[in-house]
Structures are given as structure tokens and as C-alpha cells.
Write a structure and sequence with these properties.
- By secondary structure, this protein is α+β, with helices and mostly antiparallel strands.
- It folds into two domains: 44 residues; 98 residues, Protein of unknown function DUF3227 (Non-ribosomal Peptide Synthetase Peptidyl Carrier Protein, Chain A), CATH 1.10.1200.
- The chain contains four helices and four strands.
- Helix 1 packs across helix 2 and helix 1 runs antiparallel to helix 3.
- 15% of the residues are buried.
Length: 155
């Protein structure tokens, strides 16, 4: 029967493993075979730097993505409309991703999922993980999944 475990380590390119506060979480699967043990790396995930939370990173990525698409002025307009129409302040986006998503849909219609996917791809890129779209998932489902995944990585 396969076993799974996590290993936290920070690999320094010159000296190997260090006790720095930046870690990589490595999940592996190990099977005992007649001629030895087969170990397979399932997932490698970068830990957030220092005291940065997933919520902080999400908000930062939302800012960057909106500015990339709509520039500074358009981003300010979007935040203003979210606050006025959806009663969602910029700082609350990470804690209320469903409200954020619904607000984007009211403003952008069928363009909202494109922006949400761009945000999710940028977020996963910063986390050095791969974004995989899942049938039936909404923006808030991906955020909830990331929260669960990174909950165990806090040091």
C-alpha cells in the first residue's frame, strides 16, 4: 500500500539543506516492492516567504493582474464599482472570493472568467505550482482549495 508524507526543506544551491525560513513542501508516494522501495515525488510546492499569507499573495496577484489588463485607472474603477455595487472593499477580496467573482461577473459579463483564470494562473505561477482547470469549479473553489493545501505549510 502506498504511503504519503511531506518533507519540509530549503535547498541552498551551494550548501544544500539550510534552516532558512523559506521552505519547499515535497509530497512523495512510496511503495514497497520485492526488490526494494519505489519512491515517487507527487507534488513540490513552494512555501510563502516569511510572514506573507496566501491572502496577502492573492490580493497582490489580483492587483497585478487587474493592472496588467486594465491599467491603473481601470483597476481603480473596478475596485470602486466592487465597493459600491457589491459592498466589497479591495482588502476583503481574499476573504470573500465569491463576492469578488460575482462582482466581476456583474461588471464584465462573460469576460469575468477570463480575468479570474488569469488571476489563478498568475497566483499558481508565483507559488511555483501548476494551475489545472477543473470542471464545475468556480474562482472561490480554487481559492478554498489553495487555503486547504497551504494550511499545513505554516511553520
Amino acid at each position: 500500500m502506498p504511503t504519503r508524507f511531506g518533507l519540509r526543506t530549503h535547498v541552498d544551491s551551494e550548501y544544500g539543506v539550510t534552516s532558512d525560513s523559506d521552505y519547499t513542501f515535497i509530497q512523495v508516494k512510496s511503495d514497497s516492492l520485492a526488490n526494494g522501495t519505489l519512491t515517487e515525488v507527487i507534488r513540490v510546492t513552494k512555501r510563502l516567504h516569511g510572514k506573507e499569507t496566501l491572502e496577502d499573495l492573492l490580493l497582490k496577484v489580483v492587483d497585478e493582474t487587474l493592472k496588467q489588463v486594465f491599467r491603473e485607472t481601470g483597476t481603480k474603477v473596478i475596485y470602486g464599482l466592487l465597493e459600491n455595487n457589491s459592498h466589497l472593499k479591495r482588502e476583503e477580496i481574499a476573504e470573500k472570493p465569491k463576492v469578488f467573482s460575482n462582482g466581476l461577473k456583474k461588471m464584465l459579463g462573460s469576460g469575468a472568467p477570463v480575468i479570474e483564470n488569469l488571476i489563478l494562473k498568475n497566483l499558481h505561477r508565483k507559488l511555483e505550482s501548476k494551475f489545472e482547470a477543473k470542471k464545475g469549479y468556480e474562482f472561490s473553489d480554487y481559492v478554498r482549495e489553495l487555503r486547504k493545501r497551504f494550511e499545513g505549510l505554516k511553520v
